[in-house]
Predict the 3D structure of the following.
Amino acid sequence: MMMTNNPFEIKGKNSIITGGAMGIGFGIARRFVEAGANVLLADIHGETVEAAAGMLSGGPGKVVSMEIDVSRNDAGVKMVERCVSEFGSLDILLNNAGIFPSVPMLEMEPDLFDKVMAINLKGLAFASKAAAAQMIKQGRGGKIINIASIDSIHPSMVGLAAYDASKGGVAMFTKNFALEVASHNILVNAIAPGAINTEGTGKLNEEGMATEKKSRRIPEEFIKAIPLGRAGEPDDIAKVALFMASSAADYITGELLVVDGGRLLK
């Protein structure tokens, strides 16, 4: 018997994407909108995320922007409330917001360590909690997709101890929360990107936040260690996120999918 449905279809799904103003988050938003999903684009940089939403307008899916700091205790609830207010429900949460200050642990200050954890791990966890609560209320399941890192598995360089710890936490949180909400048909998975060319990270201040919005090109020595011979682009992650968000991934939960051009093979 022929199957007529498209398993990669997400048309009409309502989603939240954090850290969506640029880079991987914007790349995922572009793919989601192109596929007909409605997107709440959330980011700490208000003007930038508003401009990003404008660039995505006019596609099959609707886009609205929201300025928010995901490390706020109420950020998850606020984003879910806004998504439901704009679109009527929530089907997909894509946790992408994160910072990556390069500071050796021997020089690390507690406040910066706490900030990395608050954004990269705590913000993600409590956004997931709020999203799952809404999905349970709706009674039809949903998808939560977390952006982890290959540094969740193996350190790439000195100076990322706090970042690596936070992303290792994302990988294990993904597995445990997947177990917790599986009975509600809420699937929780993570994507572990390798070296990805993105904007907005040309220069980091002492708090690990971008002070220049320019392209971040991957150093040549990193690229030489990638078997496929190139750094990734945001769309390399976006296409995997689209798969994870679709019914094609309806029997996958608690998994960390590495997308690194083979970097960890070496």
Residues 77 and 228 are 41 Å apart (CA to CA).
